[in-house]
Amino acid sequence: MADHVTEKREALGEVLNGDRLVSAPYELNFRVDKQGETLCKKKLSKEDVSKLRDAVSKDYYFQMYYDDLPVWGFVGKVDRENKLDPSDFKYLLFKHIHFDILYNDDRVIEISVQSDPNSAVDITEDRDIVVEFSYSVKWKETEIPFEKRMEKYSKSSSMPHHLEIHWFSIINSCVTVLLLTGFLATILMRVLKNDFIKYSHDEESADDQEESGWKYIHGDVFRFPKHKSLFSAVLGSGTQLLALAIFIFLLALVGVFYPYNRGALFTALVVIYALTSGIAGYTATSMYLQFEGTNWVRNLLLTGCLFCGPLFLTFCFLNTVAIAYSATAALPFGTILVILLIWTLVTSPLLVLGGIASKNSRAEFQAPCRTTKYPREIPQLPWYRGTIPQMAMAGFLPFSAIYIELYYIFASVWGHRIYTIYSILFIVFIILIIVTAFITVALTYFQLAVEDHEWWWRSVLCGGSTGVFIFGYCLYYYYARSDMSGFMQTSFFFGYMACICYGFFLMLGTVGFRASLLFVRHIYRSIKCE
């Protein structure tokens, strides 16, 4: 067997995915059957044998592509016949594999591979052995049209019993949402109606009554938050990530990410993120100027680095780890250059353009009430009105709506499941957005009702708290569900999951704030502000 291998040229997405394909020595010519064709003779040293035995005991498998159709099979197997003691197990290495290929007219439709357990080599002991690897090929005709050849792979994730779970989780989430929405709508409508009636009566009755409730902080509710620049940057990045998620879903629903379109998702993420950065620039600058901020250039820089910065630092660290372990997850220098080029030539200019566009179309911050000169004192509040207990309350419901779907996504990102039911995922995503918006509005109302007028940051933190919950789920998944081990796997898992959860935090925080802003404007518009 030749020791040198020819590498395949990879597209950007494939490289990001960690795929490094090489050409295999099997010759599968169209409609040529082969029987017991010798592939090569290979002398295996003791080190090779112990490496292979380790691979067999860990259930390693190979994956090959023929005409873009994937095939996989195990390297060998552990023979455990009625033996309880692991030292008595026999380790077998398969040396003959058989390809079954179905064709229709002049197209390959399906390919499967079987290992022959009868022709296997015993590699239980460390010793030098010579192995002759061989293969056979059988071509059969089929009626399946070429267009449907990918269906076999999509079915594996939407098996009937899986689909039932998905639908169950969706119906579960929908019921949660409806209950929540109904509950909120009735409470807020009744409470607000009572409030309005009370306040309109109050004005007619004597003015010497003690003031309380949300009406009496109308002079403070629209006082701009602290750290304006950071606040605007969070909104800018969050809006961009929301747009990114929606575009990705549109592509998925159109059917761009069919199974084994290797790396399409990564390519799309990089490209769409670069193209949507104009949205971030526009939103952030517009908000910053409405807050009467002056240094909008610094604000743009902050917006550009808010999500990319941590992502880039994490990436640098993980890439170093991957290079140290010489894993294929390490990105080659060329790919890093391409990504940096995209960042400098596409992302940054669009960010600046968005900023300039919003600077030229300056909008005033329309506050229904005038802000008083001095902030009102916030009364002493019980502990559960603090930021962290409120965040815990806010994150729990949206998280429970996506909990079941998360398991499937984790299994397909970190396991070997294939995820193809994007329509269900999209429904879950919309449910998530709605629940986040409603729960944040409710908490904002209860916050204003006790005369706590610092709702700006609170609404962002409460909306984004689902991101923290998802990170908590990562910890659970890592310890209870996955069998990851070693420094590299751990750092990759937590590094990238932290970035994703941070993205969720920004995105849902933006949703929460936008919903609260609409609500606050609405209720203060309907009372007479002096």
Would you mind describing this structure in some detail?
The mean pLDDT is 85. A hairpin with a 2-residue loop joins strand 2 and strand 3 (69-74). The protein is of the alpha+beta class and 530 residues long. The chain is elongated and about 95 Å long. It contains 13 helices and nine strands. Helix 7 (277-290) runs antiparallel to helix 8 and helix 8 (296-324) packs antiparallel against helix 13. A four-stranded mixed β-sheet has the order 1-9-6-7. Strands 4-5-8 form a three-stranded antiparallel β-sheet, covered by helices on one side.
Features:
530 residues, single chain, elongated, alpha+beta, three-stranded antiparallel sheet, 13 helices
Morphology call: elongated
Strand order of the largest sheet: 1-9-6-7
Q: For the CA atoms, what is the radius of gyration?
A: 30 Å
Count of β-strands: 9
Secondary-structure element order, N to C: HEHEEEEEEEEHHHHHHHHHHH
Major sheet: size, sense and barrel closure? 4 strands, mixed
Q: Which secondary-structure class do the elements indicate?
A: alpha+beta
Helicity level: 55-70%
Give the N-terminus to C-terminus distance in angstroms. Answer: 88 Å
> Mean pLDDT score, rounded?
85
* Tally of helical runs: 13
List segments where confidence is low: pLDDT < 50 over at least 5 consecutive residues.
Answer: none
Query: In percent terms, what proportion of residues is strand?
Result: 5-15%
Question: Summary?
Answer:
The chain has 530 residues and is of the alpha+beta class. It has helices spanning 12-17, 46-57, 151-155, 160-204, 228-254, 264-275, 277-290, 296-324, 333-360, 387-413, 422-449, 456-481, 486-525; strands at 34-44, 61-66, 69-74, 76-79, 90-94, 96-104, 107-115, 120-122, 129-141. It is built from 13 helices and nine strands.
